[in-house]
Design a protein that fits this description.
Elements (H helix, E strand, L loop, with lengths): L1 E6 L5 H12 L3 E3 H11 L2 H11 L6 H12 L8 E4 L5 H14 L5 E6 L2 H9 L1 E4 L5 E3 L18 E2 L6 H24 L3 E5 L4 H12 L3
Parallel strand pairs: 1-3, 1-4, 2-3, 4-8
Antiparallel strand pairs: 5-6, 5-7
Helix pairs in contact: 1-8, 2-3, 2-4, 4-5, 6-7
Length: 215
């Protein structure tokens, strides 16, 4: 099965991608990971991307498209994949179309995880991370029994700079502006699957399994 996974920041894409990966036995392909791996491996494309990032510029859509194409050509993705983080713009939809056509395959579904924006703000703004070991807590749903200290190592719990409300709302604005038009484009093609993302991870995964594999 070949899937694109979409959704606003904090809706739970990473959690569900991992579960889907294990259930469908296909790789979870994050474009951020693909880019980092190419840079680390010092491939020609990775070096080109590294030079672009070092100059303070965004990696061009076409270069990301080639990196994605190369990754989809690897053996573990032959029978399917879960693509996360691409496409992010309408222009990237066209690039992915070309990549898929060149590979002689097609997307099965585009999954959009949805939740009210206020729920996303609550989730992200309440997140706290141990600055020592990285353990994640939440002031409402998973507070530390040791207050502002980590239960595991007693490190200090902090709020990430991108988890402040102002930053979250800006990220959501960009999401509405850039990503929702992609969902609309795929909906016109009959590929879009909307999944309610407000429940527990188990509830959300249950909906995904029902819609994608019937069990």
């Amino acid at each position: 099965m070949r899937l694109v996974l979409m959704g606003m920041p904090g809706v739970g894409k990473g959690t569900q991608a991992t579960r889907l990966r294990d259930r469908l036995n296909v790789p979870h392909l994050s474009t951020g990971d693909i880019l980092r791996e190419a840079v680390k491996a010092e491939t020609p494309l990775g070096l080109q991307a590294k030079d672009t990032m070092a100059s303070g510029n965004l990696v061009p859509d076409e270069l990301i498209g080639v990196l994605v194409s190369d990754r989809l050509g690897e053996r573990d993705a032959a029978q399917g994949f879960i693509l996360d983080g691409f496409p992010r713009t309408v222009a990237q939809v066209d690039i992915l179309d070309r990549v898929m056509e060149q590979r002689g395959v097609a997307l099965d579904r585009v999954v959009l995880l949805e939740a009210p924006e206020e729920e996303i703000v609550r989730r992200l703004s309440g997140r706290r991370v141990c600055e020592s070991c990285g353990e994640v807590y939440h002031v409402d749903s998973r507070p530390s029994a040791k207050g502002e200290q980590c239960e595991q190592c007693e490190g200090r719990l902090v709020q990430r700079p991108d988890d402040t409300e102002d930053v979250i709302r800006e990220r959501l604005r960009v999401y509405r502006e850039k990503t929702l038009p992609i969902a609309a484009a795929y909906e016109k093609r009959g590929l879009l699957l909307r999944i309610e993302g407000r429940g527990t991870p188990e509830d959300v995964f249950g909906l995904l399994k029902m819609e994608l594999v019937g069990t």
